[in-house]
Amino acid sequence: MTKVAVLGAGSWGTALSLVLADNGHDVSLWTHRQEQAEIINSTHKNEKYLNVMIPKEIRAYHNLKDALQQVTVIVLVVPTKAIREVCKNLDAVLEQNVTIIHASKGIEPESLKRVSQMISEEMNGYKDKDIVVLSGPSHAEEVAQRQPTTVTVSSMNERNAQLAQDLFINKAFRVYTSTDIIGIELGGALKNIIALGAGISDGLGYGDNAKAALITRGLAEIARLGTSLGANPLTFLGLPGVGDLIVTCTSVHSRNWRAGNLLGKGNKLDDVLDQMGMVVEGVRTTKAAYQFAKKQNIEMPITLGIYEILFNDKEPKQVVEQLMNRNKREEMDDLARLLSSMYSQ
Ligand SMILES: NC(=O)C1=CN([C@@H]2O[C@H](COP(=O)(O)OP(=O)(O)OC[C@H]3O[C@@H](n4cnc5c(N)ncnc54)[C@H](OP(=O)(O)O)[C@@H]3O)[C@@H](O)[C@H]2O)C=CC1
Ligand SMILES: O=C(CO)COP(=O)(O)O
Questions:
Q1: Would the ipTM clear 0.90, i.e. be above it?
Q2: Within 10 A of 14 (CB to CB), how many other CB atoms are there?
Q3: Predicted pLDDT of residue 98
Q4: Where along the chain is sn-glycerol 3-phosphate bound (predicted)?
Q5: pLDDT of residue 228
């Protein structure tokens, strides 16, 4: 049995706490809202985020120091925009050495930093090579129902990745390892941009052909940006790449798909985000990827179109027209370039 603190009591933090409790670990679930901690402890529910009973062994905390008592593992599951703030607070009160696993899917606009990089910048004594990421096609709603789910954990420190694998793996939650943390983090973050696009496409009333095109050409964009930042292109063919892309672009559970769907139906971004009430990571990630692609001259036409819908009020139909009328090209250009760059390394 391991003593684990899960920081972030939203949908995913709650679902991951259930997996850990199922595996017999001692779980504290920290929330930044006192009232939410009290509700979880008295009702054993967290209804705003997940419709499931929470076993009474999982105790919710509002005081961070109390949540951290004797833990040897921390699972960080707050929205990417809160990572730095939570890590600063954590650094101020954490007294013991722990293994840090994060499960957030985003990147930081301006810096294009991945979550493991942000964590190590805010936490004294932790290097980004020691942080573990957990990512893959895994909607909290299905994990909470113990439906079969597969994810990948990755760290440059293989021992830490194996520790995370052993901590989470069970008969409903299969965990693979990988050493390509760059690819795993970028795959998980960038698929949210394409999921917004898939939702927009469905909202406009387009069918499966359009969605398959978005998924496939979206994957090419993810691989282009990812490899320019040092990811292994093959990672994008795995669970945290194409796997997560499929689940997020096709599931009604996806907040990114749902937000895109509302945009495609003509709603404005601010109204959509108000309605969602949960994090839609793809919005910030679109900004980050757009800025980077522009600076580095990386071709990302879908990302550019989604940026224009989100931030420049461009009509979704106009963006579709723009995408369909680009210059003619050969489909496999990208793949050939990526593979040859891989083999020349
Ligand atoms: N839901 C899912 O199925 C999956 C989610 N993820 C990723 O996990 C991360 C978290 O997502 P998820 O749990 O779904 O998000 P939710 O929107 O469901 O919950 C986010 C939680 O974080 C809390 N929070 C927000 N800001 C802060 C802050 N500054 N300090 C502390 N807590 C804060 C929210 O509190 P408040 O109530 O105040 O808003 C809420 O409890 C995201 O990066 C997401 O992409 C990954 C895989 C699956
Ligand atoms: O990452 C997810 C599933 O793997 C969750 O996606 P959403 O944030 O779009 O709900």
A1: yes
A2: 26
A3: 97
A4: 105, 136, 138, 191, 244, 254-256
A5: 93
Cα–Cα nearest to 132, from 108, 106, 103? 103
Q: Could you tell me if 32 and 90 are in contact, meaning their C-beta atoms sit under 8 angstroms apart?
A: no
Task: Please report the domains of the chain, with CATH numbers, ordered by start residue.
Answer: 3-179 (3.40.50.720), 189-343 (1.10.1040.10)
Taking only the tens place, the pLDDT of each residue in 177-230 is 999 999 999 999 999 999 999 999 999 999 999 999 999 999 999 999 999 999
CB 85, CB 108: distance < 8 Å: no
Q: Flag residues of the chain having pLDDT under 50.
A: none
314 labelled ligand-binding: no
**Rg of the chain over CA atoms, in angstroms?**
20
> 135 CB under 6 A from ligand 2?
no
Counting ligand 1 atoms within 8 A of each CB, the residue from 6, 7, 11 with the most, and so the one to mutate, is 11
Residue of 126, 272, 91 whose CA lies nearest to 199: 272
